[in-house]
Amino acid sequence: MIIDQYFMSINNLASFFAVILMLALISCNSSNKLLEEVSPTESGINFKNEIEDTEALSILDYMYFYNGGGVAVGDINNDGLDDIYFISNQDENKLYLNKGNLKFEDITSVANVGGRSDWNTGVSMVDINNDGWLDIYVCAVTGINGFKGYNELFINQQDGTFKEQAKDFGLAIQNYSVSPAFFDYDKDGDLDIYLLNHGIHSSQSYTNIQKNNAYSEMSSDKLFRNEDGFFKDVSDEVNLVMDRVGYGLAVSISDLNQDGWDDIYVSNDFFEGDLLYINKQDGTFEESSKEFLSHTSQFSMGNDIVDINHDGFPEIFSLDMLPEKEEILKSSTLDFSLNLLNLKRSLGYLDQFPRNHLQYNTGKNKFLEIAQFCGISATDWSWSALFNDLNLDGYQDLFVSNGIYRRPNDADYIKYVSSEQIQTKMNLTKLIDNEALAKMPSGSMPNYIFEGSKDLIFADQSNGWTNSESTISNGLAMADFDLDGDIDVVLNNFNATASLYKNNARENNNNNYLNLSFEGDSLNPFGIGVKSTVYSSNKAHYKQLHITRGFQSSMPPVLYFGLGEESIDSLKVQWPNGHEKLYKRLTVNQHLKIKYESTSPRIKKGSTEKKSFKKTIVKGLNYTYKENNFPEFNREKLMPYGITTEGPGVAVADLNKDGVSDFFIGGAKGQLATLFISSENGYIKQTKFFEAHKQHEDVDAIFVDVDNDADLDLFVVSGGGEYKINSQYLKDRIYLNNGNGNFSIANDYLPDYRSNGSVVAINDVNQDGLLDIFIGTRGVSGDFAAATQAYLLINTGFNFTLSYQSFLTDLGMLTDAFFIDFDHDGDEDLWLVAEWSKGRMFQNNEGTFREVTNQFFIDQPIGLWQSTAPFDIDKDGDIDLIVGNVGLNTKFSASDKYPLKMYKIDVDQNNDDETLLAIAKDGIYYPFEDKDKLQEQLQRFIRKKFNTYKEFAGKSMQNVFGRKVLKNAIQYEVSELRSGFFENTKNGYRFIPFENQLQWGPLRTMEVTNINGLDQLFVAGTKVDLPPFQGVWDSQPPMIITALDKIMWASEYGINYFHNHIGALKQLKDKDIDQLLVVPHNAESKLYKFTP
Fold it and tell me: What's the helix, strand, coil split of the chain in %, to 5?
């Protein structure tokens, strides 16, 4: 018995190990990667777009020589399997028929679709003749560099062959064509075409934008209207911007404002801004980029439009070529000098910055740019971008194709070819061309893949989801080639075999999907332009069917939805003619074909949105705070951001006691401050009191009874960062009220101190019955981050004297402050926030202050704090400390482990300290600035150490400046960039960051209000005084915070400010009516009345 049991155990063990071995073998044979590359041997796809520089033709002759070709995907034989058409720039294009199981066959010769043009670019598969079979339209560049040919249209003969018939349809265009986009712009039921062309003129020839509307037959974009199957050029009729320097690289179609009519987005290279055409519903478009956008990419390349946050409004993503790796970033030249930026602004150009842009659609005809927040702003030399739910988890993922054969923006190459000697040789002979080409380094690199998420932060899965290898990939398309439900990927590579990736999402997880194709009416058989919304348990997945996407490529006429583990509640389909239908009881994990049914058009409902505030037209209010433009980066070339756009100071009080708030708005340098006194007929503006102080910059102000005579006087803080520390224009001022609303300067009331002020706070600190004044200082003009002196002014009853308490010395770059009795001992303590500092609490003991931050604060993050306010945000009955920071939508990065660092030291020993910013990447600190910027300030030091850009690129702070220099420097750090609040707990204050929608920009302005009996906190912020490489921080919309679980955009309440620098928010009263005063920079101030 024992022996039998022994052998049974052995047998069981053997079986067990056999199972383990089998599972191991299965695991080895299956891919753990989401995207598994299928070899050319397995797939049968051996296409290669081969381009080589020759003496006759290279990138030195044709600047888009390395742009590569597109790829189109669609089912050309209606067998249910998507086929692939590859563009070859110089050779024969190829068509591969899908045979199933990811096996393809080259049928180019049989199908007769190889093409005859010398230089091919973009392609689209579209049913142009409405017979239910996909045709192929191929773009070509002709008329330059000896290129011959025309745009070719291959009509599907429904037997596996095609016939070239472009002339019959009016589409045998001979232009510098890049990409076609098919859509029904005029709602007549058939498909029209937007043809994207590129320019060839010098990128250095800036022209006034208003005079830049000269038509060019070869390079201006065109729109062709479908007139019974023949396409007529109606570009002039529809109001296209037909610039001869368009440099168009990508075009996408989408109903961006959800008015039922398709709009157009065009990505333009170089200085020519991107174009956003809004369909006016009358057969014309209006170029509206300045109205809808704040800034765009500098070197815009591919783009895509998709709803990434399930709100039904599509976002716009445009690519640029900002490198992520230090070695490439610091050896590349990107066109972003301050002088050039100012020149472009003066000529009317919309701001452009050299990085990817993700334009978040607010649904209110405004977009907020948040690519840096999302983590997708730097993907190097990028061509195509496609959003799709690759892992089927319900969130859009992002695939970016990358690489260039040679980098023409390499700084050492540009320096070489820019020399007069080389230019002369290049003009005389082509023998020098090979030497010039050899100076361009290779731009081969891996493609980027990002995983989307609920919070809009994308995780880099380039190595996790596939085997990341260096390539040069241009055209990109996706389709479910193997009909397993997930989306596979195909790439047109440069000088390498095309790539095909099988998606293993269905094998690797339990996520669900729904794929939709459409059978439209006789004029639009594939339903191009149809909108679909899949409602699952927790999300509304919205997509619109347009096939031209990415770069020079097209997708199949199918919509792909990942659902995670959720089921389908319903499906809403809206056809281009406005008819819509709701489908219920649908199962997941199927490819569903929706047939057009004539239904009643959707009736557009009026807005039911309740607006709590209504803009009020008040006589006498018309006022614009005009911030002067001071070139502070010419004074301090290495300062990380400016400190000169800090105003205006705004003070509110009922001066004439009529129950209506009066208010003071300070002026910028050169602008008169203004006092607004209420009357029966509106406001009376008074400026005479302030004429002598027009050159002051008024950064803060408060009404306070300084002379204890029962009327309110006015205290104004001077600052602005422009004047040296001993300037008379840095003197604060007191204007005494004579009791009748007439003010006069009180020269003898203040001691003679001068400071670049930032904030004023008042309190009777010594409890003598007289209000004392605290003045915070922003910094030292011309000496960024230098030690500063704050001031405490003690009221004697007839003037103010300076308190010389030690805590006032070197409080840092103070931005905001207020008094609060945090310890409940009957006197108010002082809470301060500053940049490059922790928040600091000073306890008041009979007028003497000592710091108690370490004692009462559990968390002490160091931030670039911009503002603060007292507010019970968690509604637990005690006051929390709200703090505004710069947010996460910047080029800065900071954490406890790897803080943002700044060194202050006289590197070149010329008696002027330099400000050296350092940022960590992969645990190593690098200079934030490039070689040119450092060299402007440290000419001999940098030139002596680094002769070439390549020598400098990738060098750490220690490599560049040396251990000794850094050790001897004054060092500042920032560990936290997020805005949030210090929660008041029984154990002390602990920091809690706000949710992500409050991290898209700086929170620089805060106002605690009581509107209709409800305590609310209004926050806003924008910062524009930044070096061009930083761009502008203008993506944070104003918000209204009632509680932690009730944070709303101010626009939901009727206060619409996007892209505006709001200098001040103040609550006013009109007797029993609550009002809000909004004072933006360089825009009209407005008064909003609360309407319950």
Answer: 15, 40, 50
Distance, in Å, from the CA atom of 93 to the CA atom of 108, rounded to the nearest integer, reads 8
Instruction: Report how far apart, in Å, the C-alpha atoms of 765 and of each of 281, 770, 790, 795, 935 are.
Output: 64, 9, 16, 10, 49
Q: What is the pLDDT of residue 212?
A: 58
In tens, the pLDDT along 321-354 reads 999 999 999 999 976 778 888 888 888 889 999 9
Tokens of 331: 């050896």
Adjacent-strand bridge partners of 757: 719, 777
Q: Containing H/E element for 568?
A: strand 568-574
What would the pLDDT profile of 930-975 be if each residue is shown by its tens digit?
999 999 999 999 999 999 999 999 999 999 999 999 999 999 999 9
Phi, psi of 645 (to 5 degrees): -115, 65
Q: Residue for token digits 């209004």?
A: 1018
Amino acid type, 974: V
d(CA 82, CA 71) in angstroms, rounded, equals: 12
Nearest to 357 by CA among 287, 448, 274: 274
Q: Are strands 1005-1011 and 1014-1020 parallel, antiparallel or unpaired?
A: antiparallel
Strands (E), 719-812: 733-737, 743-745, 757-763, 772-777, 791-795, 800-802
Spacing of C-alpha 216 from chain mean position: 32
Amino acid, res. 521: D
Reported as a single tens digit per residue, the pLDDT across 225-250 is: 999 999 999 999 999 986 656 789 99
Contact 664, 701 (CB under 8 A): yes
| Structural tokens at position 298 | 């500098």
Q: What does the DSSP assignment read for 490-545?
A: EEEEBSSB-EEEEE-HHHH---EEEEEEEE--TT-TT-TT-EEEEEESS-EEEEE-
If we measure between CA atoms, which residue out of 1055, 1063, 1061 comes closest to residue 1088? 1055
DSSP states of 457-473 as a string? Answer: PPEE-TTTSS----B-E
Q: What are phi and psi of 16, to 5 degrees?
A: -60, -50
Closest CA to 1078 of 1049, 1050, 1044, 1048: 1050
Angle ∠(157,160,165) on CA atoms, nearest 5: 35
Question: In sequence order, which residues have a C-beta less than 8 Å from that of residue 262 and are 6 or more positions away?
Answer: 183, 184, 185, 253, 254, 255, 279, 529, 546
Q: Which residues in 335-441 belong to E strands, given as ranges?
A: 351-353, 357-361, 367-369, 382-388, 397-402, 404-406
| Banded model confidence at residue 468, pLDDT cuts 50, 70, 90 | confident
DSSP, collapsed to helix, strand or coil, labels residue 900 as: strand
Residue of 622, 615, 616, 717 lying closest to 674 (CA atoms): 622
Identify which of 418, 296, 276 has the alpha carbon closest to the alpha carbon of residue 353: 296
Q: Tokens 């500092």 appear where?
A: 837
Cα separation of 153 and 171, whole Å?
7
